[in-house]
Write a structure and sequence with these properties.
Layout lengths: L1 E5 L2 H5 L2 H15 L12 E5 L4 H4 L7 E3 L2 E3 L4 H12 L7 H7 L1
Parallel strand pairs: 1-2
Antiparallel strand pairs: 1-3, 3-4
Bound molecules: FE2/S2 (inorganic) cluster.
FE2/S2 (inorganic) cluster (FES) binds next to helix 1 and helix 3.
Amino acid sequence: MRIEVCVGSNCTMMGADAIIVSLENLKETILEKNGIRPDFSLEIEIVRCLGECKNKQSVSPVVIIDGVVHHNASREEIMSVILDAAFECHDHQFETLKDNN
Ligand code: FES
């Protein structure tokens, strides 16, 4: 799974840094969890302004997950998308991981 987090000025002002911190914490711990898909991987890329904020208002922060653009991305939304993809069972450990991030 490839996550691109925009750290352009608009996205940074709207909380991109907090998303990055949560992603890095998740990346350190997620592969040790029971029930993780064996083929799951997490690649985090920090990118400069993706141009989304130039064309539309109030879209920051912007995160792209496997090519899908998420506007107004929240930490909870991004973690949920990742965990849904990472675990074979949807009764995953989101609450536990969320509390740790
Ligand atoms: S600063 Fe993130 S899309 Fe422009």
